[in-house]
Amino acid sequence: SYPTNEIHGPRIKKWAVGITIAPREKEYHTQTINSVIKAGWENPHLFIEPGVELDTTHLNLPKTIRAEKYGCWKNWFEGLKELTKIHPEAGCYGIIQDDVVFCKGVRIFLEKVLWPSKDVGVVSVFTPSHYTNKLAGFYKRDKSGRLWMAQTFFFPPAKARKCIRHKIIAGHTGDKNIDNIVGRWAYHDKSPPYYFVPSLAQHIGEKSTLWNNRLNQARGRKAASDFVGEDYDISHGMI
């Protein structure tokens, strides 16, 4: 079982969760969407780049279809902005990338443990191997521009809005390094990121949409070493 930390802020009653989806040589988004639904978010909003085909079972999900290629960063940034406008009353804004899977019950679990501190800027339930720890729970990872992995970022409402308005975020014109840029914002805003141990999600992408080398595949530091598994129900493991 896992400890439920002291809660800072109101319990989350309404979620706004999106998935950014780009065309890949090998697609993972079908597996990701199914996993997100099993984790407890039944209607994730899909932010879809040109050239993506959805499984027929996902055609009725809420979605934004980009008329032109946005790229990884812009699709993520615009997706977060759109979620705050579409769901202004949400208690949490989550942006998930299209190459990750979760264990079961993550939504219910997070409703019991968010937020882990008063100053938290963003939390991740996917924890890369070099961020893991022997003790279970949330850990601060204030790495500024050296922050790793943005597969599962969840923001408190006020921090989501501060993030999208900040010059570090709004002024970024590149097409990658979401983790690094968000890390810089969090450090500047004194709103540190927190990662959960053990990892409740796993990075599954073998092919990156941005990089074309083995160092950026989902292995080693790009993957979790202690993922609890897709069949594990974290909602049953709470104290």
Average pLDDT, rounded to a whole number, is: 91
What is the CA-atom radius of gyration, in angstroms?
A: 16 Å
Biggest sheet strand line-up: 3-2-1-4-8-6-9-7
Structural class, please? Answer: alpha/beta
**Alpha plus pi helix count:** 6
Number of strands: 10
Question: What is the share of helical residues?
Answer: 10-25%
Write up this protein.
By secondary structure, this protein is an alpha/beta fold. It is built from six helices and ten strands; from the N terminus they run E-H-E-E-H-E-E-H-E-E-E-H-H-H-E-E. It has helices at residues 29-38, 72-86, 106-113, 157-165, 167-170, 178-188, and strands at residues 15-21, 45-48, 63-65, 92-97, 100-102, 122-124, 137-140, 152-155, 193-197, 201-203. An eight-stranded mixed sheet has the order 3-2-1-4-8-6-9-7, sandwiched between helices. The chain has a two-stranded antiparallel sheet with strand order 5-10. It starts with 14 loop residues before the first strand and ends in a 36-residue tail after the last strand. Mean pLDDT is 91; it is low at 207-218.
SSE topology sketch:
Layout: E1 15-21, H1 29-38, E2 45-48, E3 63-65, H2 72-86, E4 92-97, E5 100-102, H3 106-113, E6 122-124, E7 137-140, E8 152-155, H4 157-165, H5 167-170, H6 178-188, E9 193-197, E10 201-203
